[in-house]
Amino acid sequence: MSSQIIAVGGGGFSDDSEPELDVYILEQSDAANPGIGFIATASGDAETYLLKFYQRFSKLNCTPSHLTLFRRTPDLQEWVAVQDVIFVGGGNTKSMLAVWKVWGLPDLLKVAAENGTILAGISAGAMCWFEVGITDSVSGTLAPLECLGFVKGSCCPHYSKEAERKPTFEHYVREGNVPAGIAIDDGAAVHLREGTPIRIVSARSGASAYHVARAEDKVVSTPLANVETVAFCKESVEESG
Asked: What letters, b where the CB count within 10 A reaches 16 and e where it falls short, cover 152-177?
């Protein structure tokens, strides 16, 4: 059974937009009524974030639940094992990974993915699966952060929305501080199978994903090649031809 990861650059239920991204994630499960578990560690299990999750997914064909690591925590192995989809929210990536390590969660997530659970997430929850992510965990800075390494290369979410993301990511790649990787716009997601991108999901006009790599002494950012694009908005359909 091949592992699947769906990395969302921004949008979806996190900012009350793009329900298509959330629906797409659920539809990748073979379960008739998939169980989707939300992990909001990066936000400190913020109540407002949990509310957004339930407001969206309680209306969709699924059984939603969430994992808390800042209150009484359930048996992690049991909780992870019953999820068809695990969705990781945004926030402070560095703090999230530190807490996960203490609880031994990364190993459980890796086994779950190998057994067919779909791993998904937005922002912190998108980059965490890669070797390196570009994070603003420290206020006022964008810096490389070693992540889980389930997927080779680097990842940068919010690529077109936040003005400093693109030049900063390109700088780190050009200087060799981070490996080549994937940049994802808000309103878009990249679906990977066995670590290889197979599809770009676009739910916002112009939203896409890009391969960012060194080419001699410069950096080239180009749309992901040899992958299908699924567009849910009229403008994106027209642009994708």
From this structure: ebbbbbbbbeeeebbebbbebbbeee
Pairing of strands 188-193, 4-8: antiparallel
Question: pTM surpassing 0.85?
Answer: yes
Distances (CA, A) of 233 to 7, 21, 193, 209: 19, 11, 24, 16
Q: What are the percentages of helix, strand and coil residues in the chain, rounded to 5?
A: 30, 30, 40
pLDDT, tens digit, 9 for 90 and up, residues 77-125: 999 999 999 999 999 999 999 999 999 999 999 999 999 999 999 999 9
Tell whether domain 4-239 is in CATH 3.40.50.880.
yes
171 is catalytic: no
Question: Pick the catalytic residue: 14, 137, 158, 208?
Answer: 158
Out of 26-40, 68-82, 88-102, 224-238, which region has the weakest mean confidence (pLDDT)?
224-238
Residue from 14, 43, 123, 137 carrying the catalytic annotation: 123
pLDDT, one tens digit per residue, over 43-73 is: 999 999 999 999 999 999 999 999 999 988 9
What is d(CA 148, CA 162) in angstroms, rounded to the nearest whole number?
A: 24
Can you give the residue ranges of every domain in the chain? 4-239
Beta strands 151-156 and 188-193: pairing type? unpaired
What is the Cα–Cα distance from 159 to 169, expressed in whole angstroms?
Answer: 9
Does 123 qualify as catalytic in the annotation?
Answer: yes
**184, 157 in Cβ contact below 8 A?**
yes
